[in-house]
Write a structure and sequence with these properties.
The protein has about 260 residues and is low in regular secondary structure. The protein has one domain: Pectate Lyase C-like (3 Solenoid). About 10% of the residues lie in helices and about 10% in strands. It is elongated.
Length: about 260
């Protein structure tokens, strides 16, 4: 499977972060958070915080930029508004956490648990393949391609094989993302922008796609069984036979297919 290219400079930066990081345990993290305020955030920048239970804490006055958080537990925590750019987040547990309005750029979040997490208004560019986003709130999230950094290759979100069952993606932007075989069963995609997205093999069973924009998307073997297609735009679709389950979808007569 071809992965999005982020440039050798970014890979080098991530290596340096890992190589220069320091170890902290939960007690030290709690002590730093207790002393922190908005003007003096807790210094967790570029720290190695792997395989630690750091759940249930308030990180809103913390600096976690570039930290290595692999496999750690941040469930039921408040990380709203943070800059998590260049952090290492693979297999991290963010379930039931508040990540609203966060910036997560150039990051690998593969196999992470973000079930029931609040990611509303967040900005994400990176790899989130096989992540669990079931029942997560991604409303008004901006996860579309970064067209200003094309010198490093196409900077976009990758959510291949991600679990988005029951998730709220209303008014979110996933412009040019790759979401092959993603599971959107029962998800809310009201007015969601999916322009130019690779949705091959994706499952939209019983999803609400009211007013969603699927212009120029790859919909080969995509399943729309029972989906609400009221006002859904399918501009550029030349072969409707590639769209599975259309005969059982709702409001097909109101879909904009051309």
């Amino acid at each position: 499977m071809k992965m999005p290219y982020y440039g050798s400079g970014l890979i080098t930066a991530l290596f340096c972060i890992s190589a220069s990081a320091a170890d902290l345990d939960r007690l030290e993290v709690e002590n730093r958070l207790a002393k922190a305020d908005k003007a003096h955030p807790a210094d967790l920048r570029r720290k190695e915080l792997t395989d630690i239970d750091l759940s249930g804490l308030n990180y809103t006055h913390a600096d976690l930029w570039g930290s290595d958080l692999r496999r750690s537990n941040f469930s039921n925590s408040d990380l709203s508004g943070l800059n998590l750019d260049l952090s290492v987040l693979s297999r991290v547990n963010f379930s039931h956490s508040n990540l609203s309005n966060t910036s997560i750029f150039g990051v690998h979040v593969g196999n992470a648990n973000l079930s029931d997490a609040n990611l509303s208004g967040s900005r994400f560019i990176g790899v989130m393949d096989r992540a669990n986003l079931s029942n997560a709130n991604l409303s008004h999230a901006v996860w579309g391609a970064d067209m200003k950094n094309q010198s490093m290759g196409l900077m976009r979100a990758s959510l291949n094989n991600a679990n988005l069952t029951g998730a709220n993606l209303s008014y979110a932007n996933f412009d040019r993302a790759t979401m092959r075989y993603a599971n959107f069963t029962g998800a809310n995609l009201h007015k969601t922008v999916l322009f130019g997205v690779d949705l091959s093999g994706a499952d939209f069973t019983n999803a609400d796609l009211t007013g969603a924009d699927l212009t120029g998307t790859n919909l080969e073997d995509t399943n729309f069984t029972g989906a609400n297609l009221d006002g859904t735009r399918f501009a550029g679709i030349k072969d409707k036979t590639k769209l599975k389950g259309l005969s059982t979808s709702k409001n097909l007569d109101k879909a904009l297919i051309d």
